[in-house]
């Protein structure tokens, strides 16, 4: 597994990098057969250290966890425990979904935009223009997954919504977490 370990405005020493590689490799290795790479970012907010870890699996899924602690080591350990819990919870589902998959998940490119929020925050006033202000434009990846795999990817990544291309269909679909805790699925009808 390839590791990218960095600090956001803090220095990361060799000892912490070695600890991350050993512990994360052991934790992920128990539950995922073929992790390809891991990205771990440390930062500090006031007196607290933050650690965000993302592990990319060869199946195309991503597991993401973040942790906090009074030291960088405790923040990483918190993040590692959360990731290990996620992967343990979904190990059976990962095996069921990917036992017949010979190729990794196919990914398509797309555009992702971040729009500026209203200045007053209330949203009650009439906008000056109907054209929203775009404050960021990025590349997005749209995976080709089954609905079950899309729900699992959304939960593993901790995302509220996931846009995906269903295998064998021409349209894009969306799965999202509803306010009642259930999962919603948007499947536009083709030709309708």
Automatic annotation (TrEMBL):
Sections of the chain in a coiled coil: 73-100
The UniProt record lists the keyword Ribonucleoprotein: yes
Which locations, inside or outside the cell, does it occupy?
Cytoplasm
Gene3D superfamilies per UniProt: Ribosome hibernation promotion factor-like, Sigma 54 modulation/S30EA ribosomal protein, C-terminal domain
Give the InterPro entries listed for this entry. Answer: HPF/YfiA_ribosome-assoc, HPF_long/plastid, RHF-like, RHF/RaiA, Ribosom_S30AE_C, Ribosom_S30AE_C_sf
Q: Domain Sigma 54 modulation/S30EA ribosomal protein C-terminal: where?
A: 131-184
The record's GO molecular-function terms, alphabetically, read: ribosomal small subunit binding
Q: Does the keyword Cell cycle apply?
A: no
Question: Which key words tag this protein in UniProt?
Answer: Coiled coil, Cytoplasm, Ribonucleoprotein, Ribosomal protein, Translation regulation
Gene Ontology biological process terms, A to Z? negative regulation of translational elongation
This protein's major location comes to: cytoplasm
Database matches in HAMAP family: HPF (MF_00839)
User: Which family does the record assign?
Assistant: Belongs to the HPF/YfiA ribosome-associated protein family. Long HPF subfamily.
Query: What is the documented function of this protein?
Result: Required for dimerization of active 70S ribosomes into 100S ribosomes in stationary phase; 100S ribosomes are translationally inactive and sometimes present during exponential growth.
**How does the record describe its quaternary structure?**
Associates exclusively with 100S ribosomes, which are dimers of 70S ribosomes.
Q: What is this protein called?
A: Ribosome hibernation promoting factor
Organism (species): Aliiruegeria haliotis
